[in-house]
Every structure is written in structure tokens, then in C-alpha cells.
Automatic annotation (TrEMBL):
Organism lineage: Bacteria, Pseudomonadati, Pseudomonadota, Alphaproteobacteria, Caulobacterales
PANTHER family: AGA OPERON TRANSCRIPTIONAL REPRESSOR-RELATED, HTH-TYPE TRANSCRIPTIONAL REGULATOR SRLR-RELATED
UniProt source species: Phenylobacterium glaciei
GO MF annotations in UniProt: DNA binding
Gene3D superfamilies for this protein: Winged helix-like DNA-binding domain superfamily/Winged helix DNA-binding domain (1.10.10.10)
Listed name of the protein: Rrf2 family transcriptional regulator
SUPFAM superfamilies in UniProt: Winged helix' DNA-binding domain
GO BP: regulation of DNA-templated transcription
SMART domains membership: HTH_CRP
Domain HTH crp-type: start-end pairs: 76-124, 225-272
Length: 308
């Protein structure tokens, strides 16, 4: 688990809240990494990722095939990728069909996506250019940091011989985790993928000072009060997510109209009343479960805390 063992008096909700705080930094670091690797606007990047995830889903569910293509230099041929439709990607991201179609067309024009019978694929060549290879290495470092912060308490000891280079399989699992958490936030708050990212960024900055403090607010399931949350500017959110300022401002305004954000001290916060909603608390429980399942999968691949 990301959180340390709690004493018997601690509430299960408290540990879930701590896990949510700590996993948020990893989530947002992946956003920055993907933005740099794909080097496109965020909607195009999300479209790219969702196509790639659908193409490679079999490689995260079939152990034999997964390990055949687990290493940095082991990229599956195009013929083994499962095509996906624009409609399926739009539904997954909660983004209008025409928007996804336009961004998929942009990827096709730039050679990062191809139309094949049955839908779209991200071709083998897109994963072999230097920026993407650097991203695989950078993702490994980010994931090792997450595992180190978890301390290994949620995962069983590894038996058998080391599995060697599994960096590409770890990326696939990381993309699954990222998109699953993004979808979870969207479902919980009933917003689309971009709005979910904005909410995640605002929420993390609001409580960043408490992210790695298990003793912070041990008796308050929803975390700090509104007055103790650090406001964040629209500009800072845009910079964090590499989104255009106007796009970010538009989403922030809409989220304020929905009552999910409010103004505070020259910026915005996710107010305590939102954090206390039953569906949000339930979502935090699901986030904890997904994070711990992800850590368990990483442990199976031999990704353990440094020194273990």
C-alpha cells in the first residue's frame, strides 16, 4: 500500500484518503511525461494513449504474450495489435465523437496512427522514435518512486528468478492505471476526461502539503477544511497539464458552475463539501483498490522497493 500501517483506531476512510493524496502526484507526473513524449495537445495525447491501450490490451492480459514483448527493444508487430474504432475511444474518454475523430485524423496525418480493417492502430514505428524510448525509461523511474513510497507492504515477496527487462510491460500497465483512474474520476464526478484532469490537478495542489503526512487529519475523512486548502490559479493548472490557458479557464468556469470548484484566495479549490460526497468517498475507495492492484501487478514483474 502507499499508506503505512494504521493503528486499530484509524478509520479505513483515512487510509484511503492518504492513498488518494499520494497516488495523485504519480498520476500528474504521468500527464507531464506523456505530454513531452507525444508532444501534442492533451486531447491528442489522450486519443493516442487510448488507441494504444486498446491495441495492446491482450498484452496486459495474456502472460505469455506480455513477457514476449516486455523489454525495451521488444515492440510487437502491427499485425498483433487489436484495432479500435473512434466511437469506442470517444466513449471511453467521454469526449464528443467529432472531437476524437479530428484528433485521430491529426495523428494519422503525422504518421502516429494508421487506419486498418476494424479501426485504428498505433503502428510499431511510433514506439521506436527517440522521444518515446526516453519516455519508457522516464516512466520506469516514476514507477520506481511510487513503489518506493508504497514500501512494499501491500505486495507478497517475489519468488523465482528475476524477470529481467520488463520496462515496456510496466509502461502498458502504467497506461492502463492512468486511463482507469481518469475514467474513475470522470464517472465519480460526471465530467469528461479533460475536466477530470483539471479536478485532479486542483485537488492535488490544494492538499499537496499533506500528501505524504499520514498524521495529517487522522480523524477527518475528507481532509483539510476549505480555509486550509492551498488555492491554485488557472494559469498554474494550465501549466501543470500543458493545456492552453483559455481551455483550462473554460473548464474551470464550467466546474465552478457545477459546484465542483469554488474561488478562494485568488485561486480555486475543491471544497470540503465536494470531498465529503458519498460518491467521492466511494470513488476514493475504488482508487485505493486500483492502486494496490497496480502495485501487486508491478511486484509480480519484479518491480520492488529499492533495496528489497
Amino acid at each position: 500500500m502507499i499508506h503505512p500501517p494504521q493503528d486499530s483506531a484509524s478509520s479505513p476512510i483515512d487510509s484511503r484518503r492518504l492513498t488518494a493524496r499520494q497516488s495523485a502526484e504519480y498520476f500528474l507526473n504521468i500527464v507531464r511525461l506523456l505530454d513531452k513524449a507525444v508532444d501534442r495537445d492533451l486531447v491528442t495525447t489522450l486519443t493516442f494513449l487510448s488507441i494504444a491501450r486498446a491495441n495492446m490490451r491482450v498484452f496486459t492480459t495474456d502472460p505469455a504474450r506480455a513477457m514476449r514483448y516486455a523489454a525495451m527493444d521488444a515492440v510487437p508487430p502491427d499485425s498483433e495489435r487489436t484495432p479500435v474504432t473512434v466511437y469506442a475511444i470517444a466513449k471511453e474518454l467521454g469526449i464528443p465523437y467529432e472531437t476524437v475523430r479530428r484528433h485521430a485524423a491529426k495523428l494519422r496525418k503525422e504518421g502516429l496512427c494508421e487506419a486498418v480493417p476494424g479501426g485504428l492502430i498505433i503502428p510499431n514505428s511510433a514506439f521506436l522514435y527517440p522521444g518515446m524510448l526516453e519516455a519508457v525509461s522516464a516512466h520506469w523511474a516514476l514507477t520506481q518512486d511510487l513503489v518506493n513510497s508504497a514500501g512494499g507492504s501491500a505486495t507478497p515477496p517475489i519468488s523465482g528468478d528475476p524477470l529481467g527487462d520488463v520496462s515496456r510491460q510496466v509502461v502498458r500497465l502504467g497506461v492502463n492505471y492512468f486511463l482507469d483512474v481518469l475514467a474513475l474520476i470522470g464517472r465519480t464526478l460526471e465530467v469528461d476526461a479533460l475536466a477530470a484532469l483539471v479536478m485532479r490537478a486542483v485537488s492535488f495542489v490544494n492538499i499537496e502539503q499533506h500528501a505524504y503526512a499520514p498524521e495529517a487529519y487522522p480523524d477527518v475523512p475528507v481532509g483539510p477544511s476549505d480555509g486550509e486548502r492551498e488555492p491554485v490559479s488557472v494559469y498554474a493548472v494550465a501549466k501543470t497539464l500543458s493545456l492552453p490557458y483559455e481551455t483550462t479557464r473554460r473548464h474551470v468556469r464550467r466546474l465552478m458552475e457545477q459546484g465542483l470548484l469554488e474561488k478562494s484566495g485568488g485561486g480555486v479549490i475543491v471544497p470540503e463539501r465536494v470531498s465529503a460526497r458519498p460518491q467521492v468517498l466511494a470513488g476514493i475507495g475504488e482508487l485505493t483498490a486500483r492502486t494496490e492492484a497496480y502495485l501487486a501487478r508491478l511486484a509480480e514483474l519484479g518491480v520492488r522497493p529499492t533495496g528489497v
